[in-house]
Amino acid sequence: MIIERLDTVQRLEAYRAYVTSVLGFEPTIDQLICYMLRQLSPNPSKDADGLSRHDVAVCRDFMSEGRKIAAIKHVRIATGLGLADAKHLVERRWP
């Protein structure tokens, strides 16, 4: 596979381009690393909404800081949901 031959920075940029094309927005480097680590983990336990305990904690922190858009973006990356569905999930779980 071509991506295996690239150095770390190139791999990260290639993965960022892939995630951007799938989700429709460019994730921050922190979101990208969290997403990559989640993909490598052996099957973290997730709740009914598809969020791990880590995702719930991150979103709770974002919402407590008044960063609703960041929470929605994190949910989109974590679950693969569209914008409207992620927004509804965030508003339902962290009113």
Explain what you see.
The chain has one domain. The model has no long low-confidence stretch (mean pLDDT 80). It has helices at residues 8-23, 29-40, 53-64, 68-79, 83-93. The protein is an all-alpha fold.
List keywords for this structure.
95 residues; mainly alpha
Distance between the termini: 44 Å
SSE string, helix = H, strand = E? HHHHH
Tell me the helix content.
55-70%
Number of strands: 0
Mean pLDDT: 80
The backbone outline, from C-alpha atoms, is globular
Count of domain modules? 1
Low-confidence stretches: none
**Helix/sheet category:** mainly alpha
Radius of gyration: 14 Å
Count, helices: 5
- Biggest sheet statistics: none
Strand content: under 5%
Give the arrangement of secondary structure elements:
Layout: H1 8-23, H2 29-40, H3 53-64, H4 68-79, H5 83-93
Helix pairs in contact: 3-4, 4-5
Quick rundown:
This protein is mostly helical and 95 residues long. It is built from five helices and no strands.
